[in-house]
Amino acid sequence: xxxxxxGAERSLGQLVASATAEMSAxxxxxxxxxxxxxxQDVKRGAMGSVAGxxxxxxxxxxxxxxxxxxxxxxxxxxxxxxxxxxxxSFAANVLLATLLGLVAYAKFRKMKPPEKSIASAKQTAxxxxxxxxxxxxxxxxxxxxxxxxxxxxA
Length: 154
What we know:
Helices cover 81% and strands 0% of the residues. The model has no long low-confidence stretch (mean pLDDT 80). The chain has helices at residues 12-78, 82-109, 115-129, 140-153. It is built from four helices and no strands. By secondary structure, the chain is mainly alpha-helical.
């Protein structure tokens, strides 16, 4: 971009175009920063979701097969009543699903808001709110024209 203080006067259109281009670049940079921060949280969220889905799949699809196999195995090993063996089998499946659910919860807890993007956006908003136009130097000829216009309209 050109230096606004290069000594040459710029028209209002040029100033507006320059300000628009700079604001556009600033917005694009802030969007890129937000994308970079959110990308890592999306990966963590995806891993947590996968762990949660695995917990659900394990609980739903393995319960019948594992319950029967485990119950009959306990009964053959211990000679306990088959109903006690089925209760132990169910407890083992619930324990496994609980452990996988805790892994999913731990992954989701690590997710954080995009703090750098929020701080950058707040800083930009603060700067834009405090912007004041530069006072223009009014030469004598312009002052005389303004006085003539003011008298003629009165």
